[in-house]
Amino acid sequence: MSQLAGHRVLVTGGSRGIGRAIALACAGAGAAVAFNWSRDEDGSEAEETVAVLRATGSTVHGVQADVSDAEAVSRLFGSVREALGGAPDVLVNNAAVTHDGLLMMLPETGWRRVLDVDLTGAYLCSRNALRGMIAGRWGRIVNVVSPAAFFGKEGASAYAAAKGGLVALTKSLAREVARYRITVNAVSPGFVDTRLIRELAEAERSELERQIPLGRLADPDEIAAAVLFLVSPAASYLTGTTLHVDGGLTML
Amino acid sequence: MDRDALAAEVKQLLVTGLRLDRPPSDIPDDSPIFGDGLGLDSIDALELVVLVEDRFRVSIPDEEVGKRAFASVRALVDFIAEERQP
Fold this sequence. Notes:
The complex is a heterodimer. By secondary structure, chain A is an alpha/beta fold. Chain A is 47% helix and 15% strand. Chain B has a single domain (3-83), classed as ACP-like (Non-ribosomal Peptide Synthetase Peptidyl Carrier Protein, Chain A). The interface between A and B is small, with 8 and 8 residues.
């Protein structure tokens, strides 16, 4: 498969989980791929990800950068341009954190950190990516959101608010840049079989699976496939929309 | 580069970059770039930012600078003359 040959992709939060699967899918489709990882990681997973991605034969670049910090994002884009030989024309805003807790007891620092990374991070990365996309009159932005954006989620109000904001940002930006052949869409993964879920007790896990019409958790590759579709030529007429890749959980 | 040559280059960029249906010499120096002047809208501004930054090595990072730079053709020429990197 080489449907992304000649394209340069940046996946934020790409060292593990869904982000890694997305980066791998894009590299497998022939794109040069960059990703960043967060200040909370030691870099060992990132190293492993670089190795996994390089095995596809693609150009790969991994760098630590906090997407909520405007200067760090600017440096991130500088290093990506250098490593991939140009500005990314595909951006996947996947980096996210959460701070769980009931809103009445949620510390302001936790609230702000979640909004800063999950929503402001997407704003900063999109802002940096758009210049190159407008100059090239082509671009793809995919924002990774969550069913929490549509249903709300008790104990995760900051995360749900940030993801809901990201859905609205997706639609607004899609309108702003459509004229430049840049599409902006979202993917909303349901429950995915990543480390977070694997740590749950068996009983909690079966309860989760019971809520999903397809009766099982998603594999990260199934989320990546939807992202790959949205950035591929086949999705040229989609913009401002959300693909709910959630086994039927949301059905919006 | 003298100011007249720079102004001519800016007008040429406006016409070719934004596909305006008029010769560069028909654009007055005091013409507002957006709204009634050249008939451009705020989304055209995004492309103009990219074109001007690439061609003249200036930075238009936000709308505050953008408003100053794009007030008129003359303002844009002044902005480039002051801000361009060697």
